[in-house]
Design brief:
Layout lengths: L1 H19 L4 H11 L3 H16 L7 H5 L6 H5 L14
Helix pairs in contact: 1-3
């Protein structure tokens, strides 16, 4: 649930950052079409836009990156396997 919520936030925030910086809406829409189905690229775009806007690192993803949940897509792609202490009921 959190993952889909944060992805919706990125879908909202990325165009906001760009439009705030006076990037024409047609260019924002064209660029978004390149990443609209790629959440990892959206995350990367968000992190760098955050840095550009606030001149500081965005920290909210640090814990999830170093300690992925066993059922997360990132964990699956990285070959993470759940041990006895990591079951779906332990969230």
């Amino acid at each position: 649930m959190f993952t889909s919520s944060i992805e919706r936030f990125h879908e909202f925030a990325i165009p906001c950052f760009l439009l705030h910086d006076s990037v024409p809406e047609a260019q924002v829409t064209a660029a978004w079409s390149e990443v609209k189905n790629q959440s990892e690229r959206q995350l990367g775009a968000f992190i760098f836009l955050w840095l550009s806007e606030f001149e500081e690192k965005h920290l909210s993803h640090a814990t999830e990156r170093t300690h992925p949940r066993p059922d997360s897509g990132a964990a699956t792609r990285q070959g993470y396997r759940a041990g006895a202490s990591h079951t779906h009921g332990d969230r």
